[in-house]
Design a protein that fits this description.
Helix content: 40-55%
Strand content: 5-15%
Largest sheet: 8 strands, parallel, barrel
Number of domains: 2
Number of strands: 10
Strand order of the largest sheet: 1-2-3-4-5-6-7-8
CATH topology of the largest domain: TIM Barrel
Distance between the termini: 25 Å
Radius of gyration: 19 Å
CATH class of the largest domain: Alpha Beta
Structural class: alpha/beta
């Protein structure tokens, strides 16, 4: 059922992936995704020291026999440890798949492959996917303008970006940005992708770390409750509309500098996610938040997504058959 090159490459039951969620993507979430037939990525940049990262990986492994993924963010501002140290941990802990993002993964492709690790590089455009393929990445994840976090400078939606990327490369493509259910999974496959990656939707699950007030916001928010900020400093980000986001937009509108912005945008979001202080910091979230209406367990969500995808497929088959 829904077997693709990605399910075979990553040895997973379903073409469903949980992206690297900074701060909240801990062992319980990653293991729950694996147990439900998908693949989840733990964000290395969450951890301030290598021992904590290694311990969290081992904790996840104690909770599942499925694959554990690791996100390595190559953007300089996101590096809490040397990249080489993260690569070493990935190899030593026998992580089967690393998700890279931010800058080019060129320097770490060879050492990861030497350690038996597959690489999926996250990109925001077809031209970057071509580069990832040339560098030897095993797969690419392309993120549309709708996505939470870093959607790229071009402001192109997933509906256009996914097939453009599929046409540009021969390696498997994973679609991200705007996906939250079985309808989205079938749509992504129809566009030529071989899996969907979801971040915002997985934040609204029981196993994901997060204050009840934050999860309540996710359930009640509309698709218009996000803000696209920081394009003025060439580092656009989609975040929840809150007091900090409003302040950033006001500063950008009057032509602020990076130096002025840094004190406002700094921080990993602990006050939001751990303490429920929703106006205290920026919180990355995608437009797909408007499709979130509950907080199920990860298994409930993945099972429901697959069941809905089957129903959509049957409806489409019936529609095509009667045409």
């Amino acid at each position: 059922m829904f077997q693709t090159r990605i399910t075979k490459l990553f040895n997973i039951k379903y073409p469903i992936i949980c992206g690297g969620l900074l701060w909240v993507g801990r062992a319980e979430l990653i293991a729950a995704v694996a147990n439900a037939g998908g693949l989840g990525f733990m964000a290395a940049a969450t951890f301030q020291n290598l021992d904590d990262l290694r311990a969290e990986i081992r904790k996840a492994r104690d909770l599942t026999d499925g694959p554990i993924g690791l996100n390595i963010n190559l953007f300089p501002a996101m590096r809490t440890q040397p990249i080489e140290a993260w690569v070493e941990i990935a190899c030593e802990e026998k992580i089967p798949v690393v998700e890279t993002s931010g800058h080019s993964p060129e320097a770490i492709v060879a050492p990861l492959h030497a350690g038996g690790v597959k690489i999926m590089h996250k990109v925001a455009g077809a031209r970057y996917a071509r580069t990832a393929e040339r560098l030897g990445c095993d797969a690419v994840c392309v993120v549309g303008y709708e996505c939470g976090g870093q959607p790229g400078m071009d402001e192109v939606t997933s509906l256009v970006l996914v097939p453009a990327t599929v046409d540009a490369v021969s390696i498997p493509v994973v679609a991200a940005g705007g996906f939250a259910d079985g309808r989205g999974l079938v749509a992504a496959l129809a566009l030529g992708a071989e899996a969907v990656l979801m971040g915002t939707r997985f934040m609204a699950t029981k196993e994901c770390r997060g204050h009840p007030a934050w999860k309540e916001w996710l359930v009640n928010a509309a698709e218009t409750d996000t803000a696209y900020i920081l394009k003025s400093i060439n580092n656009p980000s989609r975040v929840a509309k809150n007091a900090v986001a409003a302040k950033v937009m006001e500063m950008e509108a009057r032509g602020t500098t990076l130096e002025e912005l840094l004190p406002i945008i700094a921080g990993q979001g602990g006050a939001v996610f751990d303490d429920g202080k929703l106006d205290s910091q920026l919180a990355r979230v995608g437009q797909v938040v408007g499709l979130i209406h509950d907080v199920p367990t990860v298994k409930e969500f993945i099972d429901r997504t697959v069941e809905e995808a089957v129903q959509v497929r049957e409806r489409l088959n019936a529609a095509i058959g009667s045409a």
